Known about the structure:
60% helix, 25 helices, mainly alpha
Amino acid sequence: xxxxxxxxxxxxxxxxxxxxxxxxxxxxxxxxxxxxxxxxxxxxxxxxxxxxxxxxxxxxxxxxxxxxxxxxxxxxxxxxxxxxxxxxxxxxxxxxxxxxxxxxxxxxxxxxxxxxxxxxxxxxxxxxxxxxxxxxxxxxxxxxxxxxxxxxxxxxxxxxxxxxxxxxxxxxxxxxxxxxxxxxxxxxxxxxxxxxxxxxxxxxxxxxxxxxxxxxxxxxxxxxxxxxxxxxxxxxxxxxxxxxxxxxxxxxxxxxxxxxxxxxxxxxxxxxxxxxxxxxxxxxxxxxxxxxxxxxxxxxxxxxxxxxxxxxxxxxxxxxxxxxxxxxxxxxxxxxxxxxxxxxxxxxxxxxxxxxxxxxxxxxxxxxxxxxxxxxxxxxxxxxxxxxxxxxxxxxxxxxxxxxxxxxxxxxxxxxxxxxxxxxxxxxxxxxxxxxxxxxxxxxxxxxxxxxxxxxxxxxxxxxxxxxxxxxxxxxxxx
Length: 479
């Protein structure tokens, strides 16, 4: 008797796992065809068959009330395996499937086949996750879904992965649901990447789809980069937008296995943006894998042009944290002017964060012009924000000149919030009249806020125009 009651209770719990299309929970005893099949399998001691979407659903069995219970159509959130109607509690831009997309069970015509070595077989089919079972039970009772940890996800096989996605249907779309979804879809990419990718590509939300594709392709390419690249190549021909966000990790993983092969594939890409991302990610991986000398040798063999400049950027990034002088010299040798300026700015910025006086001395060796003035201004600005006294000492050793004006402005502006009076003194060293008045007026305005009596006494002697003095002090009658 007790066994009968428990079996009935378990079957009843299964009946409640799929919410009806209007978002309300079915009354007890009212179930859809998939739930009836799951209950039948439970009573028979079998694993229930995978539930199918409306396009592949079998004829509905009678419910306990004797009426047919049809599978609802549509889909929202992670109601992907059943295709339930939209539920306002879930983000409509979350994991809704494209119109007309129906779930297919493994082995069904046209469905993905299990990947070799993916952990399938009798053992994988019967070993079920207690954590996922708790998720299913919570969903059946309408309770919050217990979190699925990274460790628990790492042990899931395909039946549990599908069940986990099904259980997530009762969870509102938010950071926690998104985190669990990404973990589960990434795990699926390890277990059966072709099936996981078909699932990911069926998502309607472009943002969620791209994120899922990226997760699957990342895990897939770690295990089998050539197979992952084959899929990527097909998508580049048929649907390039779907792989933009997955390019970096894919080619990094390809390079970790075989950097020469990865570069051959990257150079053959037609899309300039994807090609640049792919090549840069390969170079970054080669640096991390200790192949920096190979990059330098490759650079020496290449003709001048955009490809060589891209390689120079990678080498510069490799040297910047440890050998900034060497990185700066490489940056100066880049042919393309915008690329050279950008690379030099990055080197100088990193160098300033570590050794600002050396960075400033290096910038002074650059040819006089806009590049030097702009770089020096950035060095002094960063330096003064961290140690204004040392920056001021270095600037005091330089002779005022139009070329030094940007750096002098940076120092004066950095001093304004701390010491407006000192900022005024430094601003008076600016050679250009317009830049000097602009900086002096800012310092004077700040000075008026913190020490108005001192500022009023000093402003008439700053050399500001009568109009600026009037703006700062007000009309004579108001003083």
